[in-house]
Amino acid sequence: MTKTVENKGLITEMFTAGAHFGYSRSRRHPSAKPFIFGTKNGIEIMDLEKTSVELEKAKEFVKTLAKGGKQILFVGTKSESKKLIEDGATAIDMPFVAERWVGGVLTNFPEIKKRVALLEDLRSKKEKGELAIYTKKERSLIDKDIERLERNFSGIVSMKDIPAAMFVVDPRKESIAIKEAQYLGVPIIALASSDCNLKEVDFAIPGNDSSVSSVSFFVSQIVQAFKAGRTV
Predict the structure, then answer these.
(1) φ/ψ of residue 108, rounded to 5
(2) I need a surface site. Which of 26, 97, 142, 162 has the fewest CB within 10 A?
(3) Is there a contact between 211 and 14 (Cβ–Cβ < 8 Å)?
């Protein structure tokens, strides 16, 4: 009885967040068909009862990762998700990619680690005033290097190894990240709208991946599940 009440509450929260809005039928990926409830004004409506079931599966997996002290890499580079991904990952000290997925983040991780190490080295030298030995022009060039490295790698400084899993907002948009995770066998949790291939991820959460309110809700759910797993 309590579980039913909790599930209804979850569905109400998702509905309020606009999680039920998909795309037009012409954009639907065949794998999303079982999760479509109907169509309204040309827009497909996701079946939130089914979404709630998939969300719970994803949350249980996240809890096991947290319990085992594992890392989840948060990925979401489109404008609606950048800030939410960064804030969510930071809240639980997890690595994230919110600006641009640099090819090889997973599949060429040793090389990426070198870039991260360079960023940390330059940061340290700047903080200690050790860059004062360079000319003004040289310092300007170094600052540009730091800025570029920050933009590409600041979110993954804490990622010392391949993550145990990846949480993605919009796997269609993050196709390169998805392919790299698949290649290495890294489990993928994804908030995926009706235009996504839900079968290419391990834990697909069918829902609106393009509105701030919806993305915020699902990121929060993953973060809360991780926190809950840590306390078990």
Answers:
(1) -125, 45
(2) 26
(3) no
* Residue 206 buriedness (CB in 10 A; 0-12 / 13-18 / 19+): buried
144 vs 151: CA distance, rounded Å = 11
Which of 166, 154, 79, 164 has its CA nearest to residue 112? 154
Spatial separation of the C-alpha atoms in residues 38 and 34, rounded to whole Å:
11
Reduce the DSSP state of residue 174 to 3 states and report it. Answer: coil
Is residue 4 pLDDT above 80, yes or no?
A: no
Helix axes 2-16, 48-67, angle to 10 degrees: 110
Dihedral Cα 118, 120, 122, 128, nearest 10 deg: -150
The answer to whether 28 touches 46, Cβ cutoff 8 Å, is no
pLDDT digits 0-9 by tens, 160-180: 999 999 999 999 999 999 999
The encoded tokens of residue 108 equal: 């060429």
- Give me the architecture of the 2-105+162-231 domain, per CATH: 3-Layer(aba) Sandwich (3.40)
Instruction: Please enumerate in sequence order all residues whose Cβ is within 8 A of that of 211, keeping only pairs 6 or more positions apart, or say none.
Output: 17, 18, 21, 80
The full set of domain ranges for the chain reads 2-105+162-231, 109-156
